[in-house]
Write a structure and sequence with these properties.
260 residues; mainly alpha; two-stranded antiparallel ribbon; 8 helices; 5% strand; ABC/ECF_trnsptr_transmembrane; transmembrane helix; transmembrane
């Protein structure tokens, strides 16, 4: 279901909760919304749990590391509450612990929202939607799409260059000077091929009558349907419902201020 949502509306449904979550400093709101995102991800998409965890897990380790640092080096405005433990110059209080946990949960929400968008959105449909719904210039959208399509080709060409160098006895460079020379050996042929490919694409687009005019017809039209707005309202509405529940139970904390 989510894969068929209009990419522009889907991006709005991801960005709005992401921005609003940045203002929440309590634990309850991001925790409940994170559970909601995970449920939506596996209930309305065909993303496998193994693939999702493979991408999500490295971010968890990174978030835990900077949350721990945030807890030890928190600002004076969040140093209230009782002292849990004190070691040398470091002092951890209950309020600093709560803020660091909230930061970790908010970051996990951002990652989960990003994965929900990235893993369910086709790049071509995204560019078409940006061009048709947000009226972005075709030169920008088609240019970005063409560049994105070239990335796998560059990776393949880089591997061919490496294999060619190995056949000719050029091993892996050592030291800073050797790595700089190796970078030159790789970058110049790749840049020459990129210029050649870009020129071919430009000639092909021009031969098919592409002038960059915004008033153009599209073979594949991206329309905004009722289910797109239902998805947008569900994602944003779920956040507001979570905020209301947090306020009702007395957990709500917006930008360091408790709202009761």
């Amino acid at each position: 279901m989510i894969s068929s949502i209009n990419p522009t509306i889907k991006a709005g449904a991801i960005l709005v909760p992401g921005v609003l979550l940045g203002l929440m400093f309590d634990i309850f709101t991001p925790l409940v919304y994170l559970i909601f995102i995970i449920v939506v991800t596996f209930a309305f998409t065909d993303i496998s749990l193994k693939r999702w965890l493979l991408i999500f897990s490295p971010f968890v380790l990174f978030i835990l590391s900077f949350s721990w640092t945030r807890m030890l080096y928190t600002s004076e405005s969040f140093q209230g509450g009782s002292i849990l433990f004190e070691f040398w110059y470091f002092q951890m209080t209950t309020e600093a612990l709560m803020v660091s946990i909230s930061l970790a949960l908010r970051s996990l929400c951002f990652i989960a929202l990003s994965l929900l968008f990235i893993l369910t959105t086709d790049s071509t449909k995204l560019m078409l939607s940006l061009m048709q719904q947000l009226k972005l210039p075709p030169k920008i959208t088609y240019g970005v799409l063409a560049g994105y399509r070239f990335l796998p080709t560059f990776r393949h060409e880089l591997e061919i260059l490496r294999q060619a160098h190995r056949i000719r006895g050029v091993g892996r460079a050592k030291g800073i000077k050797g790595r700089v020379q190796q970078f030159k050996r790789y970058s110049i042929p790749l840049l020459a091929n990129a210029i050649r490919k870009a020129e071919r694409v430009a000639n092909a687009m021009e031969s098919k009558g592409f002038t960059g005019d915004r008033n153009r017809t599209h073979y594949h039209e991206m329309k905004v349907r009722r289910r797109d707005w239902v998805f947008f309202g569900s994602m944003v509405g779920a956040l507001f419902l979570t905020v209301f529940m947090s306020y009702y139970f007395g957990y709500l904390n917006i930008f360091g201020r408790e709202i009761n």
